[in-house]
């Protein structure tokens, strides 16, 4: 048990060290020597867990899907909004997720994951949109596949621009803007006016524990829900 | 005169050769030796125009702004849509523009341009939105700065995803989707129903200019202009 824990801990140390190096330098310029120095482990320990730099990168990219946990909210469009807000929040706080996104967006000599990470995000979004449609939350005539592709693409670009402009300081606000502009084209009016495009109060307030996911939106009762800005409404 | 022409031609040869190398390998892995081999010029000619690899990259990034030509259309929201469609078309056909975008999106040892290319795009879009507002095309209450940032970010991510999925084969269709989803939140109903989200027939139909790359989705001439899907209208 203790041995297993230690193994898991050193694997995580390597991933975190590699993430910070990849995040700073990109894949090609990152060296295993620097990753080792930051992790404080021996080269033997590194190769025990990962045979190559490429294997570390692959493990980092796989970690991206962990950030795609679907919240429980009964209104599925709200769950979708909250999923992206929580993802944005984690992008700001989690170097492993940041490195994973950088490896996805950039081409490098790393045999890059190509579509897989986009597909994982798209699957999560499309699943939520289908549930939303079944529950009558969607306006008729919206092409869910097309919409999914746009949401994933737009989110990717929005986080990239937020990173370039200000190191993702304003990422949550940019994601809120995206939803305020997009939801009026997809949600029925009755659902639209009840959707919140900012983080639920409990998540927005709770910064103490690094582990919890977006499961707190059920106590969104503290604040009245913010209705999206519907310019014609 | 002839000498100047030759100078301009060899400068352009270097940029095109460099663009193809950067587009394939990224900045860090690109070598001036390979750029030279592709341009067919001497090293002396290369250094006559550009003192370093970094100087070539900077010239490529500067070329991006040339693709931001604002169309003449009297409806300024239509001009904005057409600007992005034309930019998308050029991205597909022009390796210099593609390399420029890659240099912008990726971090590398190139002292990267950071915000500048995003700012140039944002300036063009914001200018058009302000004119659209003055002409009464915009719904009241839309924050033009915020909207501009979203449009530039969304376009960036949409073209990135199209590149990863299919080498930008479906880029025009994805840009059209973006506008169908976004315009209902920003345009007044009267303007909305007259907006076209596919390339103008003249661009789509013009085969003789030697520049276009024969992309199938632009021959939308057979179809009547598609009005954006306004789910409530």
TrEMBL record, chains A, B:
Record-annotated DNA-binding residue ranges = 31-50
Keyword field contains Transcription regulation: yes
Q: Does the keyword Transcription regulation apply?
A: yes
Q: Which InterPro entries match?
A: ArpA-like (IPR047923), CprB_TetR_C (IPR054126), DNA-bd_HTH_TetR-type_CS (IPR023772), Homeodomain-like_sf (IPR009057), HTH-type_TetR-like_transc_reg (IPR050109), HTH_TetR (IPR001647), Tet_transcr_reg_TetR-rel_C_sf (IPR036271)
Q: Give start and end of each HTH tetR-type domain.
A: 8-68
One protein family per Pfam: TetR_N
Q: Which SUPFAM superfamilies match?
A: Homeodomain-like, Tetracyclin repressor-like, C-terminal domain
> Region Disordered: start and end of each range?
197-233
Alphabetized UniProt keyword annotations: DNA-binding, Transcription, Transcription regulation
Q: Which PANTHER family match?
A: HTH-TYPE TRANSCRIPTIONAL REGULATOR BETI, HTH-TYPE TRANSCRIPTIONAL REGULATOR RUTR
Q: What is this protein called?
A: TetR family transcriptional regulator
Q: Which organism is it from?
A: Streptomyces rubradiris (Streptomyces achromogenes subsp. rubradiris)
């Amino acid at each position: 048990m203790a041995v297993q824990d230690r193994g898991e801990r050193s694997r995580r140390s390597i991933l975190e060290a590699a993430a910070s190096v990849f995040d700073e330098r990109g894949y090609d310029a990152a060296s295993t020597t620097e990753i080792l120095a930051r992790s404080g482990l021996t080269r033997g320990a590194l190769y025990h867990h990962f045979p190559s730099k490429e294997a570390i990168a692959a493990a980092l990219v796989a970690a991206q899907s962990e950030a795609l946990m679907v919240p429980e909210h009964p209104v599925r469009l709200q769950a979708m909004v909250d999923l992206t807000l929580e993802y944005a929040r984690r992008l700001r706080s989690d170097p492993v997720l940041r490195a994973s996104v950088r490896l996805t967006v950039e081409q490098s000599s790393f045999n890059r994951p190509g579509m897989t990470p986009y597909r994982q995000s798209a699957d999560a979004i499309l699943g939520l949109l289908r549930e939303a449609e079944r529950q009558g939350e969607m306006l008729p005539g919206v092409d869910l596949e097309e919409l999914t592709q746009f949401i994933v693409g737009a989110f990717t670009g929005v986080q990239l621009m937020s990173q370039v402009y200000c190191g993702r300081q304003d990422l949550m606000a940019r994601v809120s803007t995206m939803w305020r502009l997009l939801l009026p084209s997809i949600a029925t009016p009755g659902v639209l006016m009840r959707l919140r495009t900012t983080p639920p109060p409990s998540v927005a307030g709770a910064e103490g524990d690094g582990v919890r996911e977006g499961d707190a939106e059920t106590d969104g009762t503290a604040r009245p829900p913010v209705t999206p800005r519907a310019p014609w409404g």
